[in-house]
Design a protein that fits this description.
The chain is an alpha/beta fold. The strands form three sheets. The chain has a six-stranded mixed β-sheet with strand order 9-2-1-12-11-10. The radius of gyration is 21 Å and the shape is elongated. The mean pLDDT is 93.
Amino acid sequence: MIYDVLIIGGGITGCTTAYRLSEYKLKVAIVEATDDVAMGATKANSAIVHAGYDAAPGSLKAKLNVAGCAEMGELTKLLDVHYKNCGSLVCAFSDTEAKTLEELLERGKINGVAGLEIITGERARELEPELSREVVAALYAPSAGIVCPYELCIAAGEVAVVNGCEFYFNFPVEKITKSDGVFAVDSHLRQLKARYIVNAAGINADKIAAMAGEVDFPAQITPRRGEYFVLDKNRGGLARQ
C-alpha cells in the first residue's frame, strides 16, 4: 500500500494533523516511535494555550500561535475536550519590569493578539486575588487558556482512527528514501510508503528532516526542560513564598 500522507510523530502536532487530514478522502497513517500517543513533549508541557504576544513579529510561530489560540475553543468543543479560556497575566514587580510589559504589548499588537492590555496591580488582583501585593502592573491576555494536551492528543487521534487513519506504534524511523515520487520509511525491517510525509517528530524533527534530505531545516534542535510543582487542591492548591 502507498499512503497519501504519512505523519511521523504521534504527539499533539501529529494527531491533530491526522484529525484534519482525516476529513478528506486520503489514506493517512501515523508512525510513532513509542507504544502510545503523547509520549514525548506532549505529555508534560505546561498546558498553556498562549495568546501569542511573546513570539517574534513576522515569524511563522507568531502567525500560527495567534491562529491556533483563536481556533482552540472550537476544536476542543468538536473533540469534547475541556478547555478553559481563563486568560493570562504577566506580572511586573517594579517600574523597570513594567517597561518589559510595554515591549510585550507592542509585540502582541503587531502579532494581532486580541484584547491585549496592560492593567494595574490592583486590577490584576481583582482578576486573581492570590497575586502578591508587590505586583505593580500586568500584561493581561484574555484570549489565553489552558487545556490538557494529553486528552486533546488522544481525542484527535481517536477521531482520526474512526475516520480511517492508521497508527503504527513502536516504529522509530531509521531511514527515509525517495524513488519515483514516493517516500519509503523504514524501521526495524518494516517499511511504509507514502506520497507525502509530515514531519511531526518534536525534538527529533531535525533528525527526520536530515533523513529526508531537507537542507533548509535548522541544523540542530536543542531541547529544554522546565520544572513544575504539582499541588494538591485539597490542601489549598497554591504556592506561596
